[in-house]
Recover the amino acids of this structure.
């Protein structure tokens, strides 16, 4: 018996063996059938299978077993020891089903009896019943109230009723205005929290990951060779670390006089972006861990939400953003951001008088990255762009302005922005959004 047939048979038995209320089970299975027959699912057999599998498992009381490896082995016939990091079939399909469910319910004219949802970061579906408004019978007037009403004449009673109605209307209007203002203030205060919500919901700290490219430095012997001809220069480590070795451009240097220094190399723009994000997450009471260079691996990225900083100097950025709508491209030594689409646009840093005047960056908010964890990418073509990207994801005013362009429900989508920053005296200005994409 194939997988689809097994699921069908399992669903048919649920009304008798489900761990939830039989009536709820019946309603959910009816909704499942309705969703699968919709235009959003009927042409995707894999999405129908995935949704049916997780719904029936949840109804049978096995929601806690809905883990990536379990689904991969039972539904997609992967070996029990398969590498989930190399084969993201479950994560990809969950993201696809989540997107189709959202599209289905957005197209619904009326609220269904039960709504099936798949929360970000979970493989166990949730069932939300339509709420009903209970109408309360008014309490009968107490004897003393009846006496008061009876003692009031008809004209007075009408005037009293009119005054009470007017007062109620005024109170209702005041409550409405206050409620609208309160919701507006709350929305402004939480827009950044919504952007970072998947990371805030995780029990793991956010890894803030910087690159550390290979850096070479003159050896002590080369400094001493120079010092022998210029007595009193470069005699201390402080001088060697803080002053440029002013060799004549024609001075021959052999490779043995240069050595890699593993403790050097974090780019200034990357550090500034990391500081901005760490400060923001600290205000949101979210623990962070800063990792630099080889102090983090792909396995670390798979176990924690992360903010990956820097572009061409960070191999993980290049791997994570490869294939996205906007990607970093290196072509014959020229660096750019390119839109991977027919007739796609491209962005290249602008220079003038020997200095960079304009840089571009990508900010990506990925719910289903190839790490399997929530991931933020903040990376510029050059260091100034990375600094601007870090500012963008750390300042509520910038995020709020950018997210106004997105339709409702952006919280459950992957987002990607292309940013532009103008540079004055080597300092990046406020970033502005020049392109965006969501899926």
């Amino acid at each position: 018996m194939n997988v689809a047939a097994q699921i069908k048979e399992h669903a048919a038995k649920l009304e008798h063996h489900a761990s939830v209320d039989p009536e709820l089970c019946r309603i959910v299975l009816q909704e499942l059938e309705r969703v699968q027959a919709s235009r959003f699912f009927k042409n995707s057999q894999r999405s129908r299978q995935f949704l049916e599998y997780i719904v029936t498992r949840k109804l049978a009381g096995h929601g806690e077993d809905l883990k990536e490896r379990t689904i991969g082995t039972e539904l997609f016939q992967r070996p029990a020891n398969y590498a989930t990091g190399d084969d993201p079939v479950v994560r990809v399909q969950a993201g696809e089903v989540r997107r189709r469910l959202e599209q289905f319910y957005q197209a619904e004219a009326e609220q269904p009896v039960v709504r099936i949802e798949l929360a970000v970061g979970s493989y166990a579906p949730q069932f939300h019943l339509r709420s009903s408004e209970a109408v309360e019978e008014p309490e009968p007037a107490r004897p003393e109230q009846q006496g008061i009403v009876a003692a009031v004449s008809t004209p007075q009673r009408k005037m009293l009723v009119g005054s009470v109605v007017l007062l109620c209307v005024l109170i209702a209007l005041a409550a409405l205005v206050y409620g609208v203002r309160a919701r507006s203030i709350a929305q402004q205060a939480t827009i950044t929290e919504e952007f970072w919500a998947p990371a805030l919901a995780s029990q793991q700290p956010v890894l803030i990951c910087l690159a550390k490219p290979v850096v070479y430095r003159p050896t002590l012997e080369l400094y001493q060779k120079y010092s022998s001809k210029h007595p009193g220069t470069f005699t201390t480590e402080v001088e060697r670390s803080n002053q440029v070795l002013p060799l004549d451009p024609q001075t021959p240097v052999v490779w043995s006089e240069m050595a890699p220094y593993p403790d050097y190399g974090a780019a200034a723009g990357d550090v500034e972006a990391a500081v901005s994000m760490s400060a923001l997450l600290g205000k949101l009471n979210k623990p962070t861990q800063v990792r630099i260079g080889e102090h983090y691996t792909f396995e670390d990225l798979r176990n924690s939400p992360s903010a990956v900083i820097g572009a061409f100097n960070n191999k993980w950025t290049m791997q994570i953003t490869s294939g996205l709508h906007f990607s970093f491209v290196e072509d014959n030594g020229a660096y750019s951001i390119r839109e991977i689409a027919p007739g796609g646009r491209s962005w290249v840093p602008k220079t003038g008088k020997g200095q960079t005047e304009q840089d571009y960056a990508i900010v990506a908010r990925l719910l289903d990255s190839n790490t399997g964890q929530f991931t933020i990418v903040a990376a510029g073509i050059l260091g100034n762009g990375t600094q601007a990207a870090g500012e963008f994801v750390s300042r509520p005013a910038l995020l709020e302005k950018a997210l106004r362009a997105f339709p409702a429900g952006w919280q459950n989508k992957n987002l990607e922005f292309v940013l532009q920053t103008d540079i004055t005296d080597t300092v990046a200005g406020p970033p502005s959004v020049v392109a965006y994409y969501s899926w």
